[in-house]
Amino acid sequence: MKIWLKYLIGVVLGLLGGFFLPASASDSSLGKFFFDFFVNVGRYSLYPMLFFSFTIAVFELRDERQLLRLSVKTFITIIGMTLLLTIIGVVSVLLVRPARITIFVEEEAVSGSLGVLEGLLSLFPSSGFEALTQGLYILPLCILAGFAGAACATDKNMSKPVVTLFDSLSRICYEIMSFIIEVMAVGMIAVSFFWMVQFKALLSTNVFRGFIILLLVDALIVIFGVYPLLLRMLFKKENPYRILYGCVSSLLVGFFSGDANMSLPVMIRHSKESLGVRRRVSSVSLPLFSVFCRAGSALTCAVSFIVIFNSYSRLSIGFFDVLWITFVSCGLSFLLGRFPSGGVYAALAVLCGLYSKDYNAAYLILKPAAFFIGAVAAMLDNLSAMFGTYIVAKSEGMVHHRETRFFI
Known about the structure:
Layout: H1 3-20, H2 23-26, H3 29-43, H4 46-63, H5 67-96, H6 116-123, H7 139-154, H8 156-203, H9 209-234, H10 240-245, H11 248-257, H12 260-273, H13 279-292, H14 295-312, H15 319-333, H16 343-355, H17 370-395
Helix pairs in contact: 1-8, 1-11, 3-8, 3-12, 4-7, 4-8, 4-13, 5-9, 5-13, 5-14, 5-15, 5-17, 7-8, 9-17, 11-12, 11-17, 12-13, 12-17, 13-17, 14-15, 14-16, 14-17, 15-16
């Protein structure tokens, strides 16, 4: 059975359970416990597999003198996708203007911070081995693995035993990751159950429906329109919906977990076994996209802030304010690598504080919908990572075509 179908069955069972169980039974802390437990299970194999695979990929790319070109293409694609989705989000909310959200701020605002300085310090900890134990922030691990791969490429004879060992460990860790991905079909029941419990509570307020619909419509436009059109423009003979079909599992995991580190193993496996992207590309590009390409987060952050602005003010938003929101939302999204989940709400808090002191607590009116904002953001982030990696790999001729019937 296809992985996406297993995940879909798990999601449907979880949603039905969360919807039909009475509030007294579904509001228990057990739901949150099992949600956190299975998210951790999904993350479990990421660090060892990523370290060994990233090292081997950098070694092979540097040995073939493709590392710089591939990195430049990856970051150009990241910037382009993030800016594109931010503009789409801003335009959509300006055209539709969903209903104002009732202003109710019962708790004291906390100054929003993305911990940029702490993030910079963590890139190079006092011991390189600490990068292996970060747990959530994968960029320090990628830096250490990149140094290791580049060092191996400087003297291939000396490093041959290490390369052979790391290659074997990479393949073993990949098999462990594949097994956990299969097991996570059961975990998706718990993950989607807890999601539905929160969603029921959100809908019961009757305040956020216009906002929810706007985010969902934006997501559908990006999923079925923008990215397929972009891929068709770049590669005229490519069927973009074949690529979209290979992203289904990643979209499900991203939407219901809202977690980038849980989604990354699923994306790595599908990019190789469904889309046919070579390991040396996906092992480098996908982690970089996961850390830096939070295009969905930029879109949802911009939309959320303009909804907040319209709720607080009856004045129309000015042109220069629109430009400011677009570029600041886009810029903040590049700093969310330390937040595998909940990053978009943290960015929204920072955006409110940067805009005006009067808006320091404004982000709190969307707190009940924070999980949903994160769900849409994570889903679009995953889609951006998959399409972006495929675009980079295709441009480098590092894709082995696979027929749809052989997708996992």
